[in-house]
Fold:
Amino acid sequence: MRTTIVSLLAVLLGLLAGALLMLFIGSNPIEGYSYLLQGGLKNIERIGNTLATATPIIFTGLSVAFAFRTGLFNIGASGQMLIGGLVATGIGLTLDLPKGILLLVMVLGGLLGGALWAFIPGLLKARFNVHEVVSTIMMNWIAYWTVYYVVPGYFKGEFLETESRKLPESASLKVPFLSELFAGSYVNLGLFIAVIAVIIVAFIINKTTLGYELKAVGFNRYAAEYAGMQVNRNIILSMLISGGLAGLGGVALYTGNANTIQIGILPTQGFDGIAVALLGANSPIGVFFAAVFFGLLYSGTGFMNAMTEIPPEIANTIIAIIIYFAATSVLIERLIAKGKKKRSKEDTTGPVVKKGEL
Amino acid sequence: MWTVIEQIFPYAIIFTIPLLITALGGLFSERSGIVNIGLEGLMIIGAFSGALSIYYLQGIMPNNQLALWIGLLVAAIAGILFSLLHAFASINLSANQIISGTAINLIAAALTVFLARNITGSGNIRILSGFKPIDIPILSQIPVIGDLFFTKTYPTTWFILAVLLISTFALYKTKFGLRLRSCGEYPQAAEAAGVNVRRVRYTGVIISGAFSGLGGALIIVTYAGEFTGTVSGLGFLALASLIFGQWKPFGVLGATFFFGFASTIANVSQVIPELSAFPPIILKIFPYVVTLIALVIFSKSSQAPKAAGETFDSGKR
Structure:
């Protein structure tokens, strides 16, 4: 309950800061936000697009949150997305199979690609105690350059050097019944896979021995070790699952929302994943709602930008400010505690301050 | 091969300097006990504010190098102001320093493009002219060394090297340096000895802000000439250099030069016959792979400040 309040207050403060920025550049924030809401929710197609925009972020949010539960900071979701998307695109452009089977192979390929990319930092952490923040950042750039040379080398587009060939209809997560249901939106099967992933991850974390062990390692790896848990194996496993989830995010982004993979871009959804995990308090359901909220901000800004003078980068700015407030949640918690103190006039002890992560 | 090295050496140095000063900033922050992965964002802030102020100043005083130096100063100040966000979050509010740093990165990237878009319409800010590389008279005539170090050199290069020397001196030979390092190793002991840990840590983060801001602006006034909303991961590379260089000023110098040299080789490999035999992808990922290997090698004997990343709790002994 408390974490929900903190998240909502962080969102509120972020939106407030966004409003101040709009005022600063001489625009009307009420008008801006109303166009933003309309842009994301006005009709069934826009709602579909909002959900589609949210889909990769649900995956990366789950990815970061899952690793976080084990005390690992996976900052490499972007790279894992790239590799997952590259593998899925490669399969989609190479294999000639019926749509259902092809999609299954692509999704599995993307999952494995992302998992493999996260396996390396996981292994380095478990075996050599190399800090995963630095190693995943390095892996991001290795993925960036891999895509940069593999796509033009093997899957070059007909007209553009900078992107892959377009995926055929049979290799796209877009399916006619969904597109029709949402009046031509680019919402796709990725959303369904994301919802399934939310449920599975919630089940693993809350109901299985594995989930319990992972959380135990996250709380205190020495205590977990003392209790007989295989800490190193759990660290690697956690990174594998986390990377697999991010890889699926890449599949959703490049073979669902888009039908090509572009070079020279580290997908920002990887970093949004950190934000979403934080805002969703590392719970799968929380991640889902936070991601949909981000999807709304992103998909609404296009319309807002068309109707007003406010640049679309306001969405990123608001999100970044929300993260800052979520990170400094102690401030909010102190305010809540102060409020309670005033009301009850009882001497309450301060909020428990968590020790730094590193 | 020697002519190749002679040719690319000046470019390698140009590329090294922004990395060096940023990593040096990170060194001050981490030595004081605050992990700062917001270096990338602070560089972007520096690049933005530097480009913006130079853009306006060059309108008022064309063909005057003073505009560039003022731009660098503005960038350092902007870096300081922005780094205060990180300092406040991680020192006063016990925030997770990695998350706070990530927030700094995200805010910087989004806010600068947002503002630049409002100012120029395109989100890019181009300055009229940057520093011109010059051959230093007499010294550039010295065989070997002259060609490597004193031809096509920028005044900023020498300025940053001076900062490196002063920083090393400050870190190891002054009371301030001793206090800074002790706050990163064992802050409770430092506090018991009468050191104001929080103030020292603020100083460390502020220095990292000033240096990274400077680093970002140096990209604009030397090789880039334009703010485009990103510094292409140089801040993260600076962070890697810091670890690679084992949190020591001259280690950092060596690590950043390695990255500068490796990146330059990768960038020019296509036009140099001796290098075109290597596939470009190998040259591009080389620095990152080497960093991973170096991390493995150093993991046993890491010289990391012991309290870096930990919230200071004066009750903990």
Observations:
- Chain A touches chain B through 50 residues (CB under 8 Å).
- Chain A has 15 helices and no strands.
- Residues 340 and 346 of chain A are 8 Å apart (CA to CA).
